[in-house]
Amino acid sequence: MKKIKVVTAKIGLDDHYRGIISVTDALHKAGMEVIYLGAGQRIDGVINAIVQEDADAVGLSFLCGGHVEIMRKFMEKLKENNLNNILVIIGGIIHPQEIPELKEMGVGEVFLPGTLTKDIATFVKQKAQSAI
Amino acid sequence: MIKAKEINDKYREKETDYTTSSGIELKNVYTEEDIADINVKEEIGLPGEFPFTRGHHPMMYRGKLWNIREIAGLSSPKAFNKRCKYLLELGQGVLDWEIDGPTMYGIEPDQPYSQGQIGVTGVTLHCLKDVEELSKDMPLDVLSISSDTFYPDIWQSYILVAKKQGYDTTKLRGVGGGIYYYGPAIAPSKMDWLIHDGRFSTCARWGNDFMEYVLKNMPKWNIWFTSSYDFREAGGNAIHEIAFTLSIRDEIIREMKKRGVDVNTTARQLSPVLASDRDFFEEIAKFRAGRKIWAKTLKEKFGANDQNAMKLRFHVDVSGSNYTRQQPLVNVARGTLGTLAAVIGGSMGIQNPSFDEGWAIPTEEAVRLAIRTQQVIRYESGVTKVADPLAGSYYIEYLTNKIEEESLKMYNEIEKMGGWIEVIRSGWVHSQLSKGLLEIQRKVENGERPVIGVNCHTIPTEEDYQPEVYKPDTAEVEEYLAEYKTFKDKRDNNKLKTVLEKLRNTAEKTNDNLVPYVFDALEADATFPEIIGVLRMVDGLEYDWAGERKYPF
User: Fold this and answer.
1) CA distance A36 to chain B (A)
2) Interchain proximity A113–B325, CB inside 8 Å
3) CA B409 to chain centre
4) Over the stretch B260-291, which tens digit does the pLDDT of each residue have?
5) Tens digit of each residue's pLDDT (9 = 90 or more) over A22-63
6) Domains of chain A: residue spans and CATH
7) ipTM score above 0.90
8) Does B474 touch chain A if contact means CB atoms closer than 8 Å?
9) Pairing assessment for the beta strands B95-97 and A109-111 based on DSSP bridges
10) Predicted TM-score (pTM) above 0.80
11) Which domains does chain B have, with CATH numbers?
12) Which residues pair with B222 in a beta bridge?
């Protein structure tokens, strides 16, 4: 069976990496191949990495706001690059009332603080496996 | 029906973790035997006396209480000026100016990358006029301001504003000016903020130039040279916190020495931000050990002899990462304990996060409760009456020595590896922190590290308390952006070009102190991103960090 491949990153003016590193580690431990690009990434850089790596999923973390604006542009870029089938998950300091808007854009799931990383790994495994 | 077994288990519940949060193994009880090796006079001594284990001042809080300095920063300078006044009305005597992402990264507020992030995690400040607006109606001769700005842009503007208002700028009080030394440890993608091509980046050189300027001209200014609190937030423990703090200090002492500033002058004005994390006694012991090692190493390693240089004065941030999004009111208890540890440890400034930390920057109501919590400890608990009240406790003295020993070991190890700049460049610091954070996460997930509301004593989300959440007023931000555009359009471009070129040439071709050239640029209405941009160009970096703007001239 093909290994699930995930790209993780932080886009925007935000260096709070504790969450994304924990999630990256949990996905890796759950048997996935994970490429962590680091914090301070630009949208195009992440899209390029997804294309190059032929990733099945992408995980982004936001703790300093701007996620609605960034995700709108990010999802548009995904479509432009015909990456409609990729699973997109995000997490961090996100207000509950923003979640419906984010999901409407095509975000697969929004994980809030306190979520156990093993639950995120289980979610990605189930969703991405069925897509492969 | 409540089950008998559950009741019995609760009744029999006991402590099962026998280590401190930094991993020191603990006995059930400590006795005089555990401190038999400690020379009480030399190692513990008295408050205000070398090695300052018991406090920096003989009178401690009878001489001066700690500053209540809540982290603050939001929206536009105009809106934040109002919040600052509110904080002063609530009983704060000092202020903190936390900046937003665009300001911290040195990019323009009107460029695409800033969208949605203006004024969200702090105030947006981009030019001299903004700092003037924020300082309005404030007594700059007595007010101490801190800010987490990496570079001296805000501080140099602040000095110009004070000068314009007729204040004696040599008497200004502030807390800031050196945090680019620690930044890349927690933001590894920004290594070039500190190091470029194996030496200080041009932006860091500007920071060093400003530090030299402060040490030679502004004796009341405290140089906030590391937010060692962040090392804890990023996964480090109490040992990392103290060892890293000392290693950064050494790097600064050496750099200032090259510039003709002696160790006594430098150390007198250096002040770190430390953390108050969740292991109550270990944190108290850490503060005591930190003061002791600071004094001893300054004396033994650098030959410092000024008592004021050897007494470590620090501000404490109570750890926000221990606050939970779930059951947010429980955070008030966490904040109380963290604040209390800092007070017993002899801190001279404390920030206690507001209970809505896991949601957004605080509402007025939330920050009021955080301040009131500090005030309950100040005025109702009685803990401020006697200096270093836990001295002589077998456990505290044992732990103080143990942390001193472990921190010194790591501090010497760092020195062997080449010092702070080298261990940050090599990625050693980052890997230490990452290991720590994964270990904490592992313990949270398997229940070894209880977090109420997250892995124990949870309640369904729908039953949980929903705090009112602060959101920046988009009208305030739009008004700011409109004014910013008018301001930029009205500038004299020839003059602007002259000052920016002068700054760039000076940085490129000379070793002159850049501070006067930045003053000139600010007075010609250069924006902070323009100043940072030309200095980045000197290192061959993109003018704009986000790659969206080109150098206009």
Assistant:
1) 12
2) yes
3) 24
4) 999 999 999 999 999 999 999 999 999 999 99
5) 999 999 999 999 999 999 899 999 999 999 999 999 999 999
6) 5-131 (3.40.50.280)
7) yes
8) no
9) unpaired
10) yes
11) 60-463 (3.20.20.240)
12) B175
